[in-house]
Fold each of these.
Amino acid sequence: MDLGQRSETVRRANLSAIVRTLHEEGPQSRSDLVTRTGLTRSAIRVLVGELKAAGLATEDRAVRHGRPGRPSPEVSLVAGAAVAVAFSIGVDTLAAAVVGMGGTLLGLSRTDRPRGHKVASAVVDDLVSLLDHLPSGRPEPETVVAVGVAVAGLVRSRDGLVENAPNLGWTSVPLGALLAARLGWSIPVVVRNESDLGVLAEHRRGAAVGIDDVLYVHGEVGVGGGVLVDGRPMAGAAGYAGEIGHVPVDANGLLCRCGAIGCWETQIGAGAILARAGLPRDAGPEALDDVFAAAEAGDVVAQAAIETTGRTLGSGLGGLVNTFNPRMVVLGGIFGRLHPHAQQAIWEELERHTLPAPRAMVRVVPAKLGVDAPLLGAAEVALESVLADPATRFGHRARVAQLASA
Amino acid sequence: MDLGQRSETVRRANLSAIVRTLHEEGPQSRSDLVTRTGLTRSAIRVLVGELKAAGLATEDRAVRHGRPGRPSPEVSLVAGAAVAVAFSIGVDTLAAAVVGMGGTLLGLSRTDRPRGHKVASAVVDDLVSLLDHLPSGRPEPETVVAVGVAVAGLVRSRDGLVENAPNLGWTSVPLGALLAARLGWSIPVVVRNESDLGVLAEHRRGAAVGIDDVLYVHGEVGVGGGVLVDGRPMAGAAGYAGEIGHVPVDANGLLCRCGAIGCWETQIGAGAILARAGLPRDAGPEALDDVFAAAEAGDVVAQAAIETTGRTLGSGLGGLVNTFNPRMVVLGGIFGRLHPHAQQAIWEELERHTLPAPRAMVRVVPAKLGVDAPLLGAAEVALESVLADPATRFGHRARVAQLASA
DNA sequence: CAAGTTTTGTGTTCCTTCCGCTCAAACTAC
DNA sequence: GTAGTTTGAGCGGAAGGAACACAAAACTTG
């Protein structure tokens, strides 16, 4: 139920509008904030003053822009005042990052993850030790607002339970709780599927900035999807939404590792490309690199493998365009690499399987953030609490100072 | 951009919370409203008073419920104070209804629509003349808040342009504008796809009350879908979302009337059932009635036709459950009739094509509102403006009275 | 049946928050 | 340098809900 509102709700919403605007669009003048939010100069002045006092924002001398009138000082968020720690558990890599308000990347470190299964606690240890390898060093625990985690698998968003992650060999792993315990910080740990986070990152910082209806399709060994509906990530009832790799597309098709017959994934995943190139389906990522290299060098078998995969990708995307009516389809993972080689094949099949109206308004583009998208998306969801209610951080510095003096 | 908020925003939100609660949950006591909204008794008193003064609500003597304490009067919406006019243009019927606040059906009339094409202006005339056949008579124009229209076709929600409606033979018909001109009322005319409205109606008044993640699948000649994501209808970038009938499921399948190969619709639409029963694909609705009757009478061909269709429906639903992670799948149109005959077949195939986690939390149920769902959904969207800002109606009676006296 | 208990309506005062207005400051243009 | 424009600063006012005190209307108990 929508709770009733009061004056304090208004202030929270207005502070949030300011911080969110600065976070998403970057530093801007007070008078820009006036036009963006519709608030009066008086209100903006007071609210920005409050943010400054709390150390969340700074005001710099205005940039001269040659127009008449008194210049308006530029307001920026203080990146380090509130930061998110983000982790990602991908098929081939583990990564950690610290991201400040405004989306400033304060540090990132990455390590290979050998394929094969490893118990969750060991992976959690690996993740946390990545924090010590950050160029910026371990972040100050007091500045960390929340922890975001991107996982290649089905995640129950409520409590961060990894229901199933075939690439990791995990079933019912309480990753959120494990990580929270290991870190020992009393802040929320938010675990999400990597594609759901990928679409958020591409929306905020990548190929889909300013576009509110986006379908993000991520391919590796498996195929996942993240959907932005009217600017909001589509989670489904428990967070499992977006498993478009397991849509049946061929009743007489191959057996998928999920146990079903004819999943789309069996036709467009990394294994499908490898098989079409005459390689074993489970050859590693290097083998896939070789296929792309061979195609560029003119190898017709490799080229055909890529084009056929592009066609199958395109027809499936067609169905999804009819289903979601997105304004943009963002191809991530191996599909982003496939795109330049198979752009025409993808679009031809997409065209063949879409209704004219949704087709006319959709664009298919490769992801801009590459492998970092899920990690950056994890940071974005972790920062969400500050964006939604910046005032929660107000007492913070005072509280820390008080503890130090006591 | 989220506009800045102020005191008036708070009042609007709180009035809206009260009216919406009463609309969705029915009449309840003031003290219920206190707990529902989290507002204080003082605030509820003033706000309900305002609604009463405006004629939107009434207070009745409290019902005795046997608990100690002073009884709290029951607040009800005045159904006739603000009404929606709803129209639906289905494959086989035209309908009109007047629905008051609280979802009270004040009048409904329906007429057959012979299959075949008819120019839009003629259909608009037919719809408007249905208003004269309402048992309640034509609604008072001053009380009508908005007009909602459900159409079996692709609708651009922004302006009510019917992009394409194969059953009606329409392409690029500005239905919203035509109807607005024909009615001559200066109120919004909201046109939407029938499935998008169907899911809304089932959510508010039907099988999916209280469930925020719902997939509604409607079958007739064509197959459409409406999706509720976190309580909100998924419209897509232009309103075309939900065309799940045109997801490709068989690369070697039949030619769909949309021009593509192997659309799901070709396997589960009314034509597919008829064909499997040995009848022509374009036999009318009576032929389909015969198939269902024959199956009930023990005809094995008819039974097999229904079961096979159920299996194909189930496997496609499996992919959609993986895609949307809904808590409920509601089957409307012919699928609602199919359900009792093919429940097991549907579920078996759905089970075979879903991941365990989303499968474990989904239920498949027949629609509760039947053919009326889109019409009632159209009324709900039309009433939305009053729910979102009841104060817009405040000056209304005064204004009408003033006009009358002048 | 009368006194006590509980819950809720009524009305006043107070607090929070933003708007509107006036004046001053900082810039451009001629 | 003077006029024009845009914006910051600060103050008073208005709107709206919360908190509080009190009254009213039910039930409970002996």
Amino acid sequence: MFLSSYANSHQVAKATPFKEADSLHGLFSRQPAEHLAIGQSLFFEGDETRHVFEVVEGTLRIFRIISDGRRVITGFLYAGDIVGVSLKERYLYSAEAITPTKVRRLARRAFDDAVADSDELRPEVFSRVCDEMAAVQDQLVLLSSKTAEERLCTFLLRHLRRMIAGGNRETTIELPMTRQDMADYLGLTIETVSRTITKLIGKGVVNVTNPAARHFIKIEKPGMLAQLAGDGGECPEALHDLMAQGDRRRH
Amino acid sequence: MFLSSYANSHQVAKATPFKEADSLHGLFSRQPAEHLAIGQSLFFEGDETRHVFEVVEGTLRIFRIISDGRRVITGFLYAGDIVGVSLKERYLYSAEAITPTKVRRLARRAFDDAVADSDELRPEVFSRVCDEMAAVQDQLVLLSSKTAEERLCTFLLRHLRRMIAGGNRETTIELPMTRQDMADYLGLTIETVSRTITKLIGKGVVNVTNPAARHFIKIEKPGMLAQLAGDGGECPEALHDLMAQGDRRRH
DNA sequence: CGCCATCTTGATTGATATCAAATCCGGTGG
DNA sequence: CCACCGGATTTGATATCAATCAAGATGGCG
């Protein structure tokens, strides 16, 4: 599966002078960069997992095509992410570039050996696997119980946080994916995504300043966005109420 | 997170004469068994992850309570499963016994050290983490794109497969969880779960033989169940159509 | 025997999908 | 430079599946 870099990626990204085996980023740094054009595939669902990849630049979508032809996007990959670790013999999804993308690859075997040998790498891999697992959990909660508006707000909020974690003080986020991608990721239709964004603009929560760039969204009211996302920041807040039973509401 | 044992668990379970560190099961085997009554909690979301657990007997639900009070069940734990591995400092969910349950625990630290030291344990942990990731992926697809009937059928089918994988030739599966649990796991309401099961009985796909035991469901037509589950067996079948674009349907 | 939790069934509503048609925008070629 | 084309997006009208609201039915258990 893919591994989100979170805060890590940025620190690591700056620190190229690492000894190769000291970090996952270092491990990939000597590999040649490969370029993917928009729409180009990195690998397909069902392919043998011969390589592990580091995304150097750009964004990819990872998805499965289900029997009726629909597409389910299970995640996006951003610069600093690593993909292909928590998989056995076959990829469980396809990966496709959304923007011009640069990646580095490592043979599966070489990667596994390096990680097995290094006391520095193992915790880093572990940490990323945990982050990835946590992200999938959150997505599971989103899909199983959130409304269209909550899903959109959660999605925007995650982007805003990624931005802030990356040290960027901007409140304009870039959404490199299309509305269709967002729909397939959030378990909605493209029409519902569009309508919901329109509604959020109407509420003054977000704004699309430059009409030429629907892929740039200004977050006008981050606090309200968090409210509408419908959970105390993707985390439990009023927890540990010692199992407040018998109060289970709708759904 | 929790780790499904799949086929592994059964082989391992028989082989108690292993040297302790040879298998995960062996690693736990010297720990005293602890008993949980129905409804009793093993740990709570937000607690520090001080222990890793092996489920020896029984079934647990793992879940999160979201801000509006609803409960999202993110998985179930069965005999042979291990829980608490792919987590950092805090549990991301609570775990609660659905049936009388027996578990063994290991201090987090002891577990990590044992795994770090053993060339036999590491692949086993890796394998289980991969299985878990695959399971969450499948759940994600289920929640993002399946109808109520497809969800129920998928759920029943998984139980049937677990049974078959366990060497049991029966086609009557036990569902130790309540209808509410199933609803919270499948992203439905209890009414929809109930209605959908009634409909499946009407179609002759399944049957509840003993009225006294709604928790035992006989699968009358496994083939049809798989059809209704709405995917070529939780796996892609007509894959690799070289990206049959521009045919994306509803949702 | 009768309470109580669990489950089932029925009637209605509502959010979102579906179907359909504009609108917008970048790119292309005249 | 401007008209046209096609993909992406938005907007509108309607349909539908599952949620909600509301009773019953069932079975375990004291």
Amino acid sequence: MLRIAHRLDLQLRAAMDRAFPEQAAAARQASQPLDPQLAPASKPEFGDFQANGALALAKPLKQAPRQIATAIVAQLQADPAFTDLCLEPQIAGPGFINLTVRPERLAAEVSARLGDQRLGVPAVEQAAPVVVDFSSPNIAKEMHVGHLRSTIIGDSLARVLEFRGHPVLRLNHVGDWGTQFGMLITHLKQVAPDALDTADAVDLGDLVAFYREAKKRFDDDEAFQTTSREEVVKLQGGDPVSLKAWGLLCDQSRREFQKIYDRLDIRLNERGESFYNPFLPAVIDGLKDAELLVTDDGAQCVFLEGVQGKDGKPLPVIVQKSDGGFNYATTDLAAIRYRFGAAPDGDDARRVIYVTDAGQANHFAGVFQVAQRAGWIPEGARLEHVPFGLVQGEDGKKLKTRAGDTVRLRDLLDEAVERAETDLRSRLNEEERSESEEFIQHVAGTVGLAAVKYADLSQNRITNYQFSFDRMLALQGNTAPYLLYAVVRIAGIARKGGDLEVLTGQLQFSEPQEWALVRELLKFDAVIAEVEEELLPNRLCSYLFELSQVFNRFYDQVPVLKADAEALPSRLALCRLTADTLKSGLGLLGIPTLDRM
RNA sequence: GGGGCUGUAGCUCAGCCGGAUAGAGCGACGGUUUCCUAAACCGUAGGUCGUGGGUUCGAGUCCCGCCAGCCCCGCCA
């Protein structure tokens, strides 16, 4: 309906110009043209759209809002293009103008979407690269629940942007550099030197244990700390022994990460922190040239504007430590320059999106400010932190295992699939259905992972997220199983003889449930546009849930296969477009669908 | 101390550029199956939108104060 909304907006503006020529001209001169405030109708009984602009004009025009609305409507009715599109507008309440699109126009919109891969979503015209930076686990650690949201949300946002036609660079900014490596390598040199020059000498689980030990020593032992720092400097200086050890550790971790990504069907290009190593000195030079750099306590800093620390002094972003080493702020700045920079040493991006937890908001705000002041953000480019809240257990505290450890992502996914399998088996039992082992594994795997993804995505990402297997796997409510079931129902119609591919001429609808479904289906383009702009996947989830509800109502109350000969093709067309929209929408959430479950 | 986020029904949460009587789901209670998968559908009950001011024709939404919870605050990422 975006095209129709756009057309209506223009028609409304023209009508306002004709109704109030002097005020319209004056408003345009003040570069605040009269706004019809066109919005989707807040309730179905108000039609398809509402224009609230008359209310705002009451004061400047010194007229009653309903009188203003009447004048605008009179002008609209004089416009043949408008009367061709809409029924007679209704003025309601204090002065709302309610607009209802002609049924035949809605039916024509549905027709146009049948068989359209894009489902009415326009492709972007100017396609500049978009960077989505997400997931970002640390080398030598296992992926855990802390990586869940970034990975799932980032992937979904990338999919939506790709669907709109943007060239998307999915970057995995893995933690493969810095102090942590100094600690690990120093520790391994002492306790497991094999791991540093032989591939797979220890497995990843051991490596994680070594890492934990190293971290403990680092925190407790000053001498170890110093050696570790020296090790980092060696690594950053390109010492061959350190580099080889580092390479082996990275390979090993990378393979483990890939297993998770394969399982979740997530595509990512690894470009870790180390990638930006050669560009770090230029960051310092650049900041020096921009006269932003200040030496403080031996460290190179940029002091932030508008952000005060404990003592009321401006807060610094440290870009070079007193020992000469660089840190994450330096890397992030180098990454910003690279991503906005021109090829070959740059990505030429116009939008860069970071999907990381909300706890890093201060860090990014600081880094973005420095980049801005250094002039590294091109005119019109967008640099956005997409924050999300913590994953909490049902007790409202940070999610932990019963033993109090961090939950491994692998275990979390396993449990979701296991629970889905248990549910499925007991259901099959109850219904006295018999299915192959292959069917059970496939359905349980799909439903389990879909549930994990959907539960996360369906929540506004800003707030903390309460993780609950029971809720996400529930068969009713705003859950993946409920949505998947709607798709299964349509597949059932196709199996039972409904030819969804049949092409019909004129679509015709008679039942309110059909019209409700038509109107819901036509909202898809606006929802995608909104997610692209706001980067909130939960908006897409809400839409798909509502679409499923409207479809289930239709399915329950209106016969499809047993419909009259005249109604049948149109109803099959609705089923087809619903299935396509649900599959496409779920696909943008990274969730595959099933024909039977 | 400074900064950020959050506070909406018993629970988990939506709420779009400020717009009409604040919405879902779960849970509770009641109903629906000779018919395309009842994993569904229909209905009932449930609200001082943390709180006090302000702006506005109109505030859950914007501004200011306060309260509560979570997170961050110099050489980890």
